[in-house]
Amino acid sequence: MALTALDRGGPAPLAGQFYMLMTPAGWGGGADGRPYLPRALSFARAVQSDDGVALDFLFEDVGPGTERLTAVGVGDELLIAGPFGNGFALEADRWPVLIAGGIGLAPIVAFDDELRDLDGVRATTFVGMRSSAHASAAGLYDLKHSLATEDGSAGHQGYVTELVATQLEAQPDSTVYACGPPAMLEAIRVLCEEHGVPSQLAMESGMACGFGACYGCVVPTKDGYIRLCVDGPVIEGAQLDTAILSGMAH
User: Fold this and answer.
1) pLDDT at residue 248, as a whole number
2) How many CB atoms lie within 10 A of CB 151?
3) Beta carbons within 10 angstroms of residue 35's beta carbon
4) Is the pTM of this model over 0.85?
5) Which is the most buried residue in 12, 15, 173, 227, by most CB within 10 A?
């Protein structure tokens, strides 16, 4: 599902940052009476204009909050807070390798946009999806990439990490920027460690506020616990013992 929202007067975000979204009406307390919190979503594309910043969000309908967001129509009002957290930081002296898995495509599209705006910077991009139907999301943004699907319906049959391993062997002077499910991020973290390649991983965790007040997204690192919403969501892979953390989505 792709949703475009206009953030009037808001600042331009960095790729990897996120917003908290909810609707002003019909949010929580539905048929089952269940209250729920705003949804933390990374943006895929930000376009600045005189009216504000038009933000594209990608998400799957996997629960009551995202189900309500899928019902938003053209011209409907949304409550948006953000941008929150940090973003990817380009290491200009190394080759950028961008890796997206599933709905983690959003911040990778945004980072690809940032790189295209820089004179002379190019990147190698890999996308991993369950099937060709899911992979069609990348086509919305003209993202040049190598594709892997688990069912083999498009691109390489298998995991995207299989493509990445070949890339890192051929080009060890790379820095990896990745977002995706925890198992994929952990495989990427280990691959990068084995090849001595730096990595920046956009992580996900359940969040209630998005700005550090609730401590709902605390995760362990080698240097102690951090709040993913203010100290992340982009973390260097070298900071982690594992990218599979309790409370993470997917």
Assistant:
1) 56
2) 12
3) 9
4) yes
5) 15
Structure confidence by residue, pLDDT tens digits, 132-144: 988 888 888 889 9
**Residues 181-227 pLDDT 10s:** 999 999 999 999 999 999 999 998 888 888 989 888 999 999 999 99
Which residue in this structure is represented by tokens 């594992």? 242
* pLDDT tens-digit readout, 144-157: 999 999 999 999 99
What contacts 214, CB < 8 A, 6 or more positions away? 207, 208
Q: For the chain, what is the mean pLDDT?
A: 91
**Three-state secondary structure along the chain?**
CEEEEEECCCCCCCCCCEEEEECCCCCCCCCCCCCCCCEEEEEEEEEEECCEEEEEEECCCCCHHHHHHHCCCCCCCCEEEEEECCCCCCCCCCEEEEEEEHHHHHHHHHHHHHHHCCCCCCCEEEEEECCHHHHHHHHCCCCCCEEEECCCCCCEECCHHHHHHHHHHHCCCEEEEEECCHHHHHHHHHHHHHHCCCEEEECCCCCCCCCCCCCCCEEEECCEEEEHHHHCCEEEHHHCCCCCCCCCCC
Residue 115 φ/ψ region, left for φ over 0, alpha for ψ in the -120 to 50 degree band, beta for the rest: alpha
Buried residues in 218-227 as b, exposed as e (16+ CB within 10 A): bbebeeeebb
Cα distances (angstroms) measured from residue 35 to each of 27, 30, 43, 179, 199: 8, 8, 25, 29, 37
Residue 250 confidence (pLDDT) above 50: no
